[in-house]
């Protein structure tokens, strides 16, 4: 099988870097590695990267700050890999634009599986000729993967886009927390994970995120899309 995706692994623990490199290369990924965020930033700017596995605590700038810099110009999938398992760290990582958060107790095989999952979600689907979901002030062009709200293009991460597409293709349908966790996170995570991603989506598509009109909460159950 030929190499098909480039993964950038950023961690100052060389043993973890080498272990992940072995497992990823065994699955035919091309792997680049960096021991700190400045080196990672330079590599990201110079070469195409399809996914980043990013530690948080490193010398100099931490992984959160690198994620913030990358999100300023790219929606490349970012998976945080950290020894820190507190909810506050997970929420911060997802809020900054991370697509997943993995605790380092996870096996290398699980990490590779999560990389594959986020790449599947971020892959552009086959174009659907002329497929536009039009709800007035909200439009979603599925063939171009574009979202326009009140005439302005909205930049979304791959997971944000797929979440929004699911809702937009099923207006007024209530998706439970459990359904969303299973579909987008393989059943791994909790309601905090979903709330953080939906909150981030609302910041981008709602006129007033504190009083959402598009993505609304169905108390105790999940969320639904109201359309324009």
Automatic annotation (TrEMBL):
<protein>
    <submittedName>
        <fullName>DNA-binding response regulator</fullName>
    </submittedName>
</protein>
<keyword id="KW-0805">Transcription regulation</keyword>
<dbReference type="GO" id="GO:0006355">
    <property type="term" value="P:regulation of DNA-templated transcription"/>
</dbReference>
<dbReference type="Pfam" id="PF00072">
    <property type="entry name" value="Response_reg"/>
</dbReference>
<keyword id="KW-0902">Two-component regulatory system</keyword>
<feature type="DNA-binding region" description="OmpR/PhoB-type">
    <location>
        <begin position="130"/>
        <end position="227"/>
    </location>
</feature>
<feature type="modified residue" description="4-aspartylphosphate">
    <location>
        <position position="55"/>
    </location>
</feature>
<dbReference type="GO" id="GO:0000976">
    <property type="term" value="F:transcription cis-regulatory region binding"/>
</dbReference>
<dbReference type="GO" id="GO:0032993">
    <property type="term" value="C:protein-DNA complex"/>
</dbReference>
<dbReference type="InterPro" id="IPR039420">
    <property type="entry name" value="WalR-like"/>
</dbReference>
<dbReference type="GO" id="GO:0000156">
    <property type="term" value="F:phosphorelay response regulator activity"/>
</dbReference>
<dbReference type="InterPro" id="IPR011006">
    <property type="entry name" value="CheY-like_superfamily"/>
</dbReference>
<keyword id="KW-0804">Transcription</keyword>
<feature type="domain" description="OmpR/PhoB-type">
    <location>
        <begin position="130"/>
        <end position="227"/>
    </location>
</feature>
<dbReference type="InterPro" id="IPR016032">
    <property type="entry name" value="Sig_transdc_resp-reg_C-effctor"/>
</dbReference>
<dbReference type="InterPro" id="IPR001867">
    <property type="entry name" value="OmpR/PhoB-type_DNA-bd"/>
</dbReference>
<dbReference type="InterPro" id="IPR001789">
    <property type="entry name" value="Sig_transdc_resp-reg_receiver"/>
</dbReference>
<dbReference type="GO" id="GO:0005829">
    <property type="term" value="C:cytosol"/>
</dbReference>
<keyword id="KW-0238">DNA-binding</keyword>
<feature type="domain" description="Response regulatory">
    <location>
        <begin position="6"/>
        <end position="119"/>
    </location>
</feature>
<keyword id="KW-0597">Phosphoprotein</keyword>
<dbReference type="InterPro" id="IPR036388">
    <property type="entry name" value="WH-like_DNA-bd_sf"/>
</dbReference>
<dbReference type="Pfam" id="PF00486">
    <property type="entry name" value="Trans_reg_C"/>
</dbReference>
